Amino acid sequence: MDPDYSRSRRPLVDPNSPVHRWIPAIGAAAVLLAVVVVGVVTSGGGGSSTPPTSTINQVVTGSTNVPVTKLPLTQTYGRGAAGPEIKLIQDRLIELKFDPGVPDGAFGERTQQAVWAFEALVMGVPSDQLTGKVDAEMWSRMQDPITIAPRRPNSTPNHTEIYLPQQVLIVFQADVPVLITHISSGDNQEWCEVVKISPGERGNEDGIEPIEKGVCGLSWTPGGVFKYYRMVLGRRESQLGGMYNPVYFNYGIAVHGAHEVPDFPASHGCIRIPMHISDYYQSLVAKGDQVFVFDGVKEPEEYGAQVPRFNWPDPNYTTTTSTTTTMAPKPTTTLAPPVTTLPAPPPATSTTLPVPSG
After folding, report:
1. What is the Cα–Cα distance from 311 to 314, expressed in whole angstroms?
2. Rounded Cα–Cα distance for residues 178 and 193 (Å)
């Protein structure tokens, strides 16, 4: 300790001085000024701040003066089950905008995918612990007066929110959900495959027959804020693979129908949705609608329109290659998102888009 420490603690201002009477007021003003400065910094210098996702009460249980009469569930149901109770579950999922397909009383793949979305979004089950089953607790929760609120209200009149940690997508119209669906996004792994490219697609613009190419890519779905800019009806074969009714929002990355939408990330970067939903998805969205992709790391606005990683030629590919190299279906390692300085996506009228992993 400093030997002169006790002597150095003498007051800087004489207690008998008139200035001493103003010290409490000066201290209070300093505290107030600090609060104001912090408020300005956190609000972006006067603009409205974007609330962190964690502060938003997205799943709201409404209050009612009339007691909610709930029907009991006799057992836990999963894929393969059938009967009138399954029909009740399907009807309720449809009311809540989770699409299980035709409510026919059969617990099939479509109902399972809708249950996955409900588990992740409403029940808070981690995406790697989904069961796809409805037990008494989940059925009781389904019967609550639930409202799903957007994380980004007051954006474009209609907008889409994609939650990668939950593997869920919601289409909002006037901030009211019109569709909530399970998805499968990119798994952040590098891959090399032999792809077929149809005539007229990038890499085969002037061809009259389909061609094959060996390409590599990073199956990464970037977080950020985007806009839908292009829609295509039907099936498309390209460096991205096969896509049904794609709606593009980040270069070649699109929301599109797929036969396989598992309960884990498995795409090349695109947002896979069930086929029956892709049949009408384009009727729910429009060019110019905003798309917010939440990656669980940063808020979308912190990224902006983050550019994806683009494919590159497979150095080991030869024209005699007849096999396809793919990654394991359930990823065990991840890659950090690459740094890129490529330009923003071209306007919707462009027909020669660079092709990222999709």
Report:
1. 9
2. 36
Task: Give the HSE-up count for residue 211: Cα atoms under 13 Å, Cβ half-sphere.
Answer: 16
Cβ contact 114:93 at 8 Å: yes
- Cβ atoms of 257 and 274 closer than 8 Å: yes
For residue 232, give the nearest of 281, 179, 184 by alpha carbon: 281
Distance (Å, whole) CA 312 – CA 273: 26
Q: What's the pLDDT tens digit per position in 284-340?
A: 999 999 999 999 999 999 999 999 888 888 888 887 544 444 444 444 444 444 444
For the domain with range 76-146, which CATH number is right: 1.20.1560.10, 1.10.10.10, 1.10.101.10, 3.40.50.2300?
1.10.101.10
Residue boundaries of the structural domains of the chain: 76-146, 168-313
Rounded to whole angstroms, how far apart are CA atoms 353 and 133?
41
Instruction: Identify the weakest region by mean pLDDT among 90-94, 264-268, 347-351.
Output: 347-351
Concatenated DSSP letters for 259-306?
A: S---SS--BSSSEEEEHHHHHHHTTT--TT-EEEEE-SSS-HHHH-SP
Domain 168-313 has CATH 2.40.440.10: yes
CA-to-CA distance for 21 and 18, rounded, in angstroms?
6
- The separation between CA 89 and the C-alpha centre of its own chain, rounded to angstroms, equals 25
Whether 308 contacts 253, CB under 8 Å: yes
Q: Where are the alpha helices (DSSP H) in 123-265?
A: 136-142
**Rounded Cα distance, 235 and 243, in Å:** 6
| Nearest-angstrom CA–CA distance, 352 and 241 | 17
